[in-house]
TrEMBL record:
Gene3D superfamilies, sorted: Alpha-1-antitrypsin, domain 1, Antithrombin, subunit I, domain 2
Alphabetical list of Pfam families matching this protein: Serpin
Protein name (database record): Serpin domain-containing protein
Record field: transmembrane: none
PROSITE patterns noted in UniProt: SERPIN
Entry GO CC: extracellular space
Molecular function GO labels: serine-type endopeptidase inhibitor activity
Length: 408
């Protein structure tokens, strides 16, 4: 796959990420009260793997939602992109002093079925997936436990129960899963002795106490009329990859919903607002935060136009070598993520599982203030390629580790 093709594919993947982030950051009472984080990359790869087992209009709709085109070659493009992402972007860099990255795909198939050879070849060659035979029909709870243990191992224990109780039963035939773990140290760590409690203003304006990190070092900040963007780079390893966290801070205390909408509707918005140089800072305060968040993603994905895989018209006949393959559809897509930001850097993890069932600007010279004391969006991406690993929003510093948000 040529570099230009990869860049276009990544642009489509980023658009998918930001559309999902916007849908997740809707101005509902539950969103306002809950910090959220998810890995669009994890979901994108899981759905791309599903596309390898889909046929006809179902495959085309997956390709259109994920890659911006519904042509037959688009599905092949998804697999080529996933291969690049899995083998290059998500290679572990910790041996050379860079971020520790772990990523894995898994295909768990019922013991009564055999995967189609073509699907298995794509899953193993392009996605580096491991395939496991499990007994969904007679030992569904045990099979779910195997999936959950696999996820917990990849995410070093941060995500313990991706598949909730009862989510897998005797009608389940396959679970496509992936898990992602990222741990990066800031290029310049914050001095923990300077971390102090201060007011964080909620969407309604009321203040709560939160721990803020501060620094007098120059920072990558871009300032606009209604927005400031901070880039916090992570230590690089022995290659050219550069992972960074971006904090997008709207001027308005309740500006994150319109900002999320702008990010989603203007694909170039993020690229145009990335800070390019360091500036002297005046007041500089960034809160520490820890987010654990889970949701069932099928409703959001249907809202983005992905309907067929969940419907009686689903064509997932390329998954398994059996007449049962004609009667498969997706029942649920579970996603969980964890992100912690502190003085040292960031630890983050995410996992997705698709369950398939049988149906019945100008830089100012004066010091710039950056005080993230009200709701903001954040994302973690690899800057060389533009691949977005995590997206989230912080709206409520008094509720640092909320429960799963199942009502989205």
């Amino acid at each position: 796959m040529a570099t230009a093709d990869i860049r276009l594919s990544i642009a489509h993947q980023t658009r998918f990420a930001l559309r999902l982030a916007s849908a997740l950051a809707s101005p509902s009472p539950s969103a306002a009260a809950t910090n959220a984080a998810f890995s669009p990359l994890s979901l994108h790869v899981a759905l791309s793997l599903l596309a390898a087992g889909a046929g006809g209009a179902t495959r085309d709709q997956l390709a259109a939602t994920l890659g911006g085109s519904d042509s037959t070659s688009a599905a092949g493009g998804l697999h080529a992109l996933s291969e690049q992402v899995v083998q290059v972007v998500l290679a572990d860099g910790s041996g050379a002093g860079g971020p520790r990255v772990a990523f894995a795909d898994g295909v768990f198939v019922d013991a009564s079925l055999k995967l189609k050879l073509a699907f298995q070849e794509v899953a193993v060659a392009k996605y580096k997936a491991e395939t496991q035979s499990v007994d969904f029909q007679k030992k569904a709870a045990e099979a779910a436990g195997q999936v959950n243990s696999w996820v917990e191992k990849i995410t070093t224990g941060l995500i313990k129960e991706l598949l909730p109780p009862g989510s897998v039963d005797h009608t389940t035939r396959l679970v496509l899963g992936n898990a992602l773990y990222f741990k990066g140290a800031w290029t310049k760590k914050f001095d923990a002795s300077r971390t102090k409690d201060s007011d964080f203003h909620l969407l309604d304006g009321s203040p709560v106490q939160a721990p803020f990190m501060s620094s007098t070092d120059k920072q990558y900040i871009a300032s606009y009329n209604d927005l400031k963007v901070l880039k916090l780079p992570y230590l690089q390893g022995g290659d050219k990859r550069q992972f960074s966290m971006y904090i997008l801070l709207p001027e308005a205390k309740d500006g994150i919903w319109s900002l999320a909408e702008k990010l989603s509707s203007e694909p170039e918005f993020l690229e145009k607002h990335i800070p390019m140089q360091k500036v002297s800072v005046g007041q500089f305060k960034v809160p520490k935060f820890k987010i654990s968040f889970g949701f069932e993603a099928s409703k959001l994905l249907k809202g983005l136009g992905l309907q067929l895989p969940f419907s009686p018209e689903a064509d997932l006949s390329e998954l398994v070598d059996s007449s049962e393959g004609q009667n498969l559809s997706v029942s649920s897509i579970f996603h969980k993520s964890f992100v912690e930001v502190n003085e040292e850097g960031t630890e983050a993890a995410a996992a997705s599982a698709v369950t398939v069932v049988l149906r019945s600007l100008d830089m100012p010279m004066t010091p710039v203030d950056f005080v993230a004391d009200h709701p903001f969006l954040f994302l973690i991406r690899e800057d060389m390629t533009g691949v977005v690993l995590f997206v989230g929003h912080v709206t409520n510093e008094s509720n640092l580790v909320p429960k799963n948000s199942e009502d989205l």
